[in-house]
Amino acid sequence: MVTGLATRAFLQTRGTARASDYAFLGAAPAEPWWRAYRDATAFDHPTVLVTSDGERWAAYLSGIPSARVDAVGSVVRYTLVLDGPCATPDAACVVAAVGAWLSDVANGRGDRPGGRLGAALDARFPASDVGRWLPGSRAAELVPDERHSGRTGSDESAVRRKGAAHSGGRIGDEVQQRALSALAALPASVAGVDEPGDWIGAVGAPAPRAAFVARVAALVGGTSGRAVLLNLVGGPGEVHPLLDPASSVAVLVESPDPQLARCTALRPVVEAKKAPAPPARAGVAALGIALVPLVAMVGALALTALVVTLLVWLL
Amino acid sequence: MSTASNSDPAEELVFRIGLVGPSRVGKTSLITALLRDSQRLLQGTPVSLRPSGTATEKRIAQHRRELDGSLLAGEFTPGALRGTEEPFTFQLLLDSGVRGIGERGTGIRLELLDYPGGWLDPATRPHDRDADWQSCQRFLQQCSVLLVPVDAAVLMEPTSAAQLRAVPSILTTPEVGEVVRQWLKERNWRPDEPALLMLCPVKCESYFDDNGGRRDESEELLSRVRRVYADVIEAVPAEAPHVRVVYAPVDTIGCVEILHAEWTPDPREPSGVAFAAHYGVRWPARQAVKGADDVLISLCKHLVAAQQRVESDIATDKRTAADHAREYADRDEGFIRNIWYQLSGERARRAHTALVSSHRAGEADARVSALADVVADLARRDPSGRVRQW
Fold first, then answer.
1. Which of A43, A102, A258, B32 has the greatest number of CB atoms lying within 10 Å of its CB?
2. Which residue from A minimizes the CA distance to B129?
3. Please, are residues A174 and A156 in contact by the beta-carbon 8 Å criterion?
């Protein structure tokens, strides 16, 4: 399958050299929108975030192990950021990528090389190219993606970026092409039956995984909502901050809880309303009514005495 | 003072601690080692140091799992631990153990910002991370404590002139020095604030014989730190003489030992040389942090002393407010006004306000007292013989 350019792809990784820290190759997404989830997931561990407003979708897949290792022997990881318009043929690559990544995580390849997604990316991104395209190397100048950001480059930083835009843009296009080609080589994922509304399930269990893939397919197809694999969330009690009546969410977590072996509906926390005050008893009410004239009379006398006292005191 | 406060400054104070070190030096490992060693240090006291918030708690747990798994497998490579991709603020709570009514616990919240060390070098920092780095710099400038983790193996393993020449580049010493100098200038504007700069060699287990190691090269390590970080150390008296400089080496793993170091020519490294250390695991292959208690003692002495000053001010303010409230409640307003205030409930309202105010002052006093006990306790503890103060 040849993917067109409606879908955009950005790839973050690091080089093997100590100085080549994690950076996007060529071009970076205009906004780091995934950071909204930073309290719910550690981005250096397996994470999937897919969101759609019905017109455009955006996807973030991180923690993907490469076969490359860095200067101290750590497995180097990829982060893949994609976005595009809904209901286009290109969007199928996201479903394939998410399906492959979830399968890798479930099969214990979430933190070591050998997974399908990592291998597909490794095949298109040899260490020599990655090394050349990272910031600091002569070939690479990283520029934030401004094709769709709508920003004008008026500040000093933008001027600097513009100088590097040509080479950065070229590398960005190459990276995008290779990343989409890697995803296109993945086998199509079999989507299960999605559960409606908000739910949570374990990534290790086949049913929630298949439902999650189905949700992702719906999101890129034009349904608004979210599908997220989070690693700092343990169970239903910890996902309430993510719930939003305007945007349903499917949540996968790494959990051995047998209850999460199937999709478990999430219910929004409804704050307990204050119990209404019990009605006053009829006798008390009647007594109150009877006392009103008496209290009013005493009050009038007291008020008069007070006014007189004040006048005397003031004069 | 670099304290920020939440909604109620008396409830929880926030101290920011800066970390300045290159990529893969072991910033995250140092934070984890601090937490692990603190349990031993604070045993028998009501005080505890613990992760604050689920995100920090789980990240620490993830890091520990990776390390413990690697050690149990009988092999250790620094590569068992992941590098940092996105900035993350570790939130720890030094909990006084004293609870106010309905409170979660009171104490000092420590915020440590972890970020990709590669951002230190403008040549390798991605341009799209400039704003992030500026945000990190702002955080660092606000800190009253700056920790500089140093990879002990990089300092100690060079044997040739070429390898020695590569050390500043691998440790990004010039970039670290620049951040420290900026921090010192900021401290110079605040001469009344206590400030602490800590040079913390990490992965030191191969160079000390007090934690299962076979050789003692501690003096050589100290000497090399002094030599390589001479600019930083000498900048302190010139830029901010009130800043305390403490040298505190840490065995972040404890049960490993360098078998051999590898220096290979690599044109991708700015120095032209790549360094890798290969470790063996000492049985029983359990993490045995050493030296983190020294860091913690220095940190606690500094932070709690500063905290105590703030809390003491708050307690005084609250006590004064309580006294004013009581005086206001009991004030003789004249015969008619006294009767009127009694009838209208004003007197009762004033009495209630005074009671609440007095209660709060009492709680603040209790916290100060608890923290004062900790200060005294920590002050009684001598740092180990590893520590130097300049």
1. A102
2. A23
3. no
Contact A21 B124 (CB under 8 A): yes
| Predicted confidence (pLDDT) per residue in A73-90, tens digit | 889 999 999 999 999 988
Range with lowest mean pLDDT among A173-182, B124-133, B138-147: B124-133
Q: Does B274 touch chain A (CB under 8 A)?
A: yes
B130 touches chain A (CB under 8 A): yes
- Rounded CA-CA distance B218/B248 in Å is 11
Both tokens of A5, joined, read 């350019």
Q: A269 pLDDT exceeds 60?
A: no
Half-sphere exposure of A109 (CA within 13 A, CB side): 17
Chain B nearest C-alpha distance from A87 (Å): 30
Confidence (pLDDT) at A138: 46
Which of 80-119 (A) contact B at CB < 8 A?
111
Query: Of the segments A39-53, A270-284, B47-61, which one has the largest average pLDDT value?
Result: A39-53
| Phi, psi angle pair for B135, to nearest 5° | -65, -40
Count how many residues are written for chain B. 390
The string over B213-229, giving b where at least 16 C-beta atoms fall within 10 Å of a residue's C-beta and e elsewhere, is beeebbeebbebbeebb
Model pLDDT, residue B183? 96
Helices (H), A42-155: 92-106, 116-124, 127-133
**CB neighbourhood size of A82 (10 A):** 27
Tell me which residue in B22, B53, B83 faces A70 most closely, judged by beta carbons. Answer: B83
Query: Chain A residues with CB inside 8 Å of B270's CB?
Result: 19, 136
Q: Does the distance separating the beta carbons of A38 and B83 come in below 8 Å?
A: no
Q: Is the pTM of this model over 0.95?
A: no
Q: What is the C-alpha separation between B144 and A13, in angstroms, rounded?
A: 33
Give the minimum alpha-carbon distance from B104 to chain A in angstroms, rounded to a whole number. Answer: 18
pLDDT digits (tens, 9 = 90+) for B225-263: 999 999 999 999 999 999 999 999 999 888 888 888 999
The answer to whether B125 faces chain A, any CB pair under 8 Å, is yes
* Peptide bond between residue B270 and the one before it cis (omega within 30 degrees of 0): no
B61 touches chain A (CB under 8 A): no
d(CA A261, CA A246): 26
Cβ–Cβ under 8 Å, residues A165 and A47 = no
Q: Quickly tell me which residue has 């709570």 as its tokens.
A: B93
Task: With beta carbons less than 8 A apart as the criterion, state whether A164 and A172 touch.
Answer: no
Does B58 lie at the interface with A, CB-CB under 8 angstroms?
yes
- The answer on pLDDT for A221 being more than 70 is yes
Checking if the pLDDT of A162 tops 50, the result is no
Q: Looking at B318-374, which runs of residues are DSSP E strands?
A: none
Distances B48 to A86, B100, B301, B357, B374 between C-alpha atoms, Å: 51, 17, 15, 28, 10
pLDDT at position B160: 92
B34 touches B292 (CB < 8 A):
yes
Pairing mode, strands A264-265 and B196-202? unpaired
pLDDT in tens, B362-390: 665 665 566 556 656 766 678 889 999 98
CB contact under 8 A, A72 and B268: no
Collapse the DSSP code of B275 into the 3-class scheme (helix H, G, I; strand E, B; otherwise coil) and give the result.
Answer: strand
**Rounded Cα–Cα distance for residues A219 and B328 (Å):** 64
Packing angle of the helix pair B346-380, B335-344 (nearest 10 deg): 80
Does B266 contact chain A (CB < 8 Å)? yes
Chain A interface includes B272 (CB < 8 A): no
Chain A, chain B: beta-carbon pairs less than 8 Å apart? 141
User: ipTM of the assembly?
Assistant: 0.70
Specify the length of chain A in residues. 315
> What's the half-sphere exposure (Cβ side, CA atoms, 13 Å) at B264?
11
| Record: contact A19-B83, CB cut-off 8 A | no
Question: What single-letter amino acid sits at A88?
Answer: T
